[in-house]
Design brief:
Blueprint (H helix, E strand, L loop, with lengths): L1 H18 L5 H29 L5 H21 L3 H28 L5 H15 L3 H12 L1 H33 L1
Helix pairs in contact: 1-2, 1-4, 1-6, 1-7, 2-4, 3-4, 3-7, 4-5, 6-7
Length: about 180
């Protein structure tokens, strides 16, 4: 949630400044907002495709892959210029929105039916509640260290999620070996 909200909060400004540097300041943000909207439309296809794939493949591995590709997309936006900015933004839109059906499927599969409400409540609290802190953190990063720096930090949030998931998988595997 932190990485997603942090990027989404500043995506129009970043795209406006990066893609439309030669245009007046007010117009840059508007144009950046239009490009950001296009990347979010691309995100809708990510939700659909991930929803289709999760019915055929293990959601945890799709989830980890999606987190990694989202982080790479964010770094691509922040690091490279020209068309790579839009490619990174489109990748971010597609894969960050693909995460939603994967998360929902994992919660419904991994938590007993009796605890689905609690499981979804925790997931949405982490995504939106903790994620709501991202605007303040990202704003501080942008003011203090520049707009690109916050994208690296937000990519780090996705990377940290991957590290945590690998840790959980290793603990589960160890517990299974101990029981078996």
């Amino acid at each position: 949630g932190m990485g997603n909200r942090g990027v989404l909060s500043f995506l129009p400004t970043f795209l406006g400044k990066s893609l439309f540097a030669d245009i007046l300041a007010a117009d840059r943000v508007t144009l950046g907002g239009l490009v950001a909207s296009a990347t979010l439309v691309i995100g809708a296809s990510g939700q659909y495709i991930a929803g289709h794939l999760v019915d055929k493949h293990r959601p945890i591995f799709l989830y980890i892959s999606t987190l990694v590709i989202t982080a790479i997309s964010i770094v691509t936006m922040a690091t490279f210029g020209g068309p790579f900015i839009f490619i990174g933004a489109a990748g971010f839109g597609f894969f960050s929105f693909a995460i939603q059906p994967l998360q929902n499927t994992m919660v419904s599969q991994l938590i007993t039916r009796r605890r689905h409400g609690l499981g979804f409540g925790i997931m949405f609290f982490m995504t939106f509640g903790v994620g709501s802190l991202a605007a303040a953190i990202a704003g501080y990063m942008a003011d203090r260290f520049g707009l690109s720096s916050l994208f690296y930090v937000m990519a780090g949030c996705y990377t940290l999620s991957c590290v945590c998931l690998f840790g959980i998988l290793a603990l589960e595997r160890q517990a299974a070996l101990t029981r078996g």
